[in-house]
């Protein structure tokens, strides 16, 4: 056979195969067969009259938790002890995996309880159960409203208002941890009361040849967002920042006070207060350096309180980011550890009962504090377990109360949209460290990324 | 070929049933045999063929299909035509990732091939000694280490108090030390060096194998004509290795353009997208941003780019042969 004949035949064969593949791929548009059309789930109907519970029949709660955090599993174990007819079927994955698989899992293999990533899309797409009826039945709506605010999503996917789609196991709080021994070395006997005082201590640490701040900011983790948002709250108003995070119409991050805060952060970078390798430092590296005494301060959250009390007992302190002037306003990032119920879950009543139990049962609240290190959810006057005097856990819990009084709680600026952290904050904060971008351009770049998604 | 009989009787007979032994019947028998043989061949190929269609061609076709939609991976999608492709070329982050991938070719491909040629040529000169065996083994080792392990190991080497900086400090180059993977200028080259380290062994071994095929008489003749080692290398070794070099370049260029693992482990695209490559961007778009359509469009562009670079290389190789 001639050469051209063979190549014609080969082309024909290829064409057949490709055509076959295309036929197999199907010509319908992707995503047209979600169960939404076939069976719309009963829009959350806890059995009327009596408050929902787990009944007396054997129930297996299907749970999907985050690997590396013992709190949910310990709560589940205690719950099984108190309610012997309930058993948990727990599956665990890393947070990144949870983020990727959340939409699929909520539909294909619906868990009764699931640790949720950024939830506005999930709620908008109807994958999460509306918890409002439970909130009414259990009286969650009488708790401080700010606790639940972040878990409300309206029909446009905006958070802050609308039906409740998740519940917290506890709520965390961010601020500054410091090494007491090193702090004494630089003459810091009590936490700074103003940003200027903090600046002074950072300079003193630098002058003493210590690393003032080993803050993670490498790879895909823009950890300088922690100090930046703390400065934003000192310079400006936390409610404006929350509006931006909740995607209020017309909200922008490029405001005068935010520019001033970013400029302040830039001064810290230029003064050399951060470790010189922050752009390649990950979270674990930051923690190990701080615990080994290689950093005077770190910006972090109270989810590490229990861990730090173990690893550097008596040598670690915590303070909230101070205001610009004494007595001025300040804030902290505070977010619930969100758990949701799939819209397709088999045992929503029992799952909701569990979430209520976590916030109200004394043993559960003790576990939430001792294992989780953070403040439990629930009414302001609810039971609090006794905490060892002088532990950092005691300090973070006290800070939580102070923030509550101030009404200074904000969600994390990284949670504004699904991608603003990875595509906006992280690369641009890394650029700020490298001196590749100025504060205004940084905020503008983040705003552009935000608008790309919010539209 | 035997002449075809055209008489009326033979024509009639041909229609009814050809006489055994006639040329026509022989041709038919041959065709039937070929059909049987082809049938058997198809049957044998079928399992692999079906798997190939199901698991290679079908996902590829699906990617192409998805690239024309705006889809979050779960809910109803909307047809957007070529919008996703327009975005790939308008979004500086996405086309920046393609530029980065091309820069990586220098490290993944050119350096390993050049170094491999040099090393193989050196090893060839003492090919029978035990030293050759040892050096071959040692230099090939990186190839059998999982890329993830290589990535982690190099992250430690590059850390601010890692081996690389320690060595630099010992020899008095304190000013050069830095967090290699966190520095805007050095991150991409640093990642590239990991790739060079991984691919060098493969290239060296392939080229060395190619060198053993060269007729020693050629070298003898060259030496009699008074050629030195350099002249020998350029006149005999290099031209004889054209095929091996082309295989090396093809494999490593694909590795550079489609790189993912090393970068995912060492920098995750940071700092500031300096080391973002299409593979990582596709992963982020599809699984974190849930922009399946845009991710598919970038994947299709990447595939076309890889083919666009690799096919001319193959043609170059084939033309050289004839």
Layout of secondary structure:
The complex is a heterodimer of chains A (about 450) and B (about 325).
Chain A: H1 3-25, H2 35-38, E1 59-66, H3 71-82, E2 86-93, H4 95-108, E3 113-115, H5 120-124, H6 132-138, H7 145-149, E4 152-153, E5 159-164, E6 167-179, H8 180-185, H9 195-207, H10 225-235, H11 238-245, H12 256-270, H13 283-291, E7 297-301, H14 305-311, E8 316-319, E9 332-340, H15 348-360, H16 362-370, E10 375-376, H17 392-406, E11 409-410, H18 420-434, H19 439-454
Parallel strand pairs in A: 1-2, 1-3, 9-11
Antiparallel strand pairs in A: 3-9, 4-5, 6-7, 6-8, 6-9, 6-10
Chain B: H1 8-16, H2 23-66, E1 69-70, E2 78-79, H3 83-90, H4 92-125, H5 130-144, H6 147-158, H7 163-170, H8 187-212, H9 216-224, H10 229-240, H11 242-257, H12 261-266, H13 278-287, H14 292-321
Antiparallel strand pairs in B: 1-2
Helix pairs in contact in B: 2-14, 3-14, 4-8, 4-11, 5-8, 8-11, 11-14, 13-14
Brief digest:
The complex is a heterodimer of chains A (455) and B (322). By secondary structure, chain A is of the alpha/beta class.
